[in-house]
Each structure stands twice: as structure tokens, then as C-alpha cells.
Amino acid sequence: MRKKELAKLIDHTLLGPTASADSVRQVCQEARENGFASVCVNPCHAQLVHELLRGTDVKTCVVIGFPHGMTTGEVKAFEAGKAIAVGAQELDMVANIAALKEGDYASVIQDIRSVCAAADKAPEDVLVKVILETSLLDDDEKAAGAILAKAGGADFVKTSTGFGPGGATAEDVALLRRTVGDTMGVKAAGGIRDYETAIKMIEAGATRIGASRSLDILAGATE
Q1: Helix (H) and strand (E) counts in the chain
Q2: How confident is the model at residue 113, as a pLDDT?
Q3: What is the Cα 2 distance to its own chain's centre?
Q4: Which of 92, 111, 155, 172 is catalytic?
Q5: Of 72, 3, 67, nearest to 33 (Cα)?
Q6: CATH no. of 3-219
């Protein structure tokens, strides 16, 4: 795959607890130079990223309820609204994993709907991606989470935060793709550090890749 084509599938990510404003500026510069799909950051950096990416095609992506998803739907909706107000164009929200594992599907879908409702109020389209943290789920739970994400109005289902016990696998991506069909995006994230791994995820059905090692991934692509 060519670099420009691959870059448009990558969310260039900086989510660590020590991420500084200077490091945010660096990833935004890299995103502009390479044409990544988005820069994905914590809410405290949303406005800075929006300002740095103004006038480019690179989107501002902000995580919600990160990294455990254990805040309430009302809090996630408020966080989403604040992020949108300062320029967020994509929201990666963490589902309530405990509720999903307990079979409390009403809580999970309400959680998702609350963030989607906040996105719907935005003056321009805002994508919502639902993070399932698949390494904590069995296959039935992964499928249930994907179904709930779709039913709740989300645009994408996503494998991982990158802060859980495991990351994306091609098998999980394929399972999510089978579950949601072709009408929804699948984002593979967590542990994707090279071109070969990224391509495996795309071949399994991923339409977006989340990575902090985006430049290493692009290094394996053709010009």
C-alpha cells in the first residue's frame, strides 16, 4: 500500500499521562506532513490540536471516558460536548466494559446514545467510535458490544484503548467486521507498531488504525 493511501487510515495518537503541549505540537506537525486521518488526544489538548490543524484535512479526535469507561453516560455526554465546543471532529468513547460483561445492555446502549446525542448537536458532522477493550471480553461479549455500538448510533467500533492488558488482533477485527457488516467503520488500535501488522488489520476489515508509532508504520509502505 502507498504511504499517502495508508496515512489516510491512521489516527496519529498521543494519549499518555505525561503528554506535553510540546509533544502535541510535534504529532500535529507529523500529521500535517504525512496527511494522517486525525490526531487523537486527551480532552485537555483538544483546543490546541484544533488550532494547530486548522486549514488541513487532518481531523481533531478526542477520547471520552478514557481509559476505563467507568463514568456515567451524563458525564461522557458533557465531556463530549465540551470537546466538540473546542473543535473535536471525532470522539473515541470507551464503553462501560463492566456493564457489558454483566449483560447490562440497557446501560451500555444508553451510554453510547448519550455521546452520539452530543455529537448530533454539533453544527458539523462528528464521528463517534466506541472502544470495547476486546482483550477483556470473550467473543460473545465482543459481538454484543459491537451490536450495541451500531444500535446506539455510533459510526465505528474500536478494539482497544492501548492501555488495557492487550491490543488489537486480526481475529478480533474480523469478528467485529462480521458483526457490524459494511455500514460501520472498524478501528484497530493497541500494539500496532509496524507496516505488516497494520496491513493485517486492514485485510481483516479495519477501516481505521490507531497508533502512536504511525511513522514506523508508514516506513514500510511504498511511495
Answers
A1: 10, 8
A2: 98
A3: 23
A4: 92
A5: 3
A6: 3.20.20.70
E strand segments, the chain: 10-14, 38-41, 59-64, 90-94, 127-131, 156-158, 185-189, 208-211
Q: What is the pLDDT of residues 136-165, one digit of tens each?
A: 999 999 999 999 999 999 999 999 999 999
**End-to-end CA distance of the chain, in Å?**
9
Query: What would the DSSP string read from start to end of 75-119?
Result: HHHHHHHHHHHTT--EEEEEP-HHHHHHT-HHHHHHHHHHHHHHH
Kindly report, residue by residue over 118-134, the tens digit of the pLDDT. Answer: 999 999 999 999 999 99
Decide if 158 is catalytic.
Answer: yes
Whole-prediction pTM value? 0.97
Say whether pLDDT at 208 is over 90. Answer: yes
Residue whose C-alpha is closest to residue 189's, from 181, 178, 126, 172: 172
Secondary structure class of 193 (helix, strand, coil): coil
Quick check: is 104 catalytic? no
Q: Does the active-site annotation cover 4?
A: no
Catalytic residue among 11, 129, 158, 172: 158
164-198 as b/e: b if 16+ CB within 10 A: beebbbbebbbbbbebbeeebbbbbbbbbeebebb
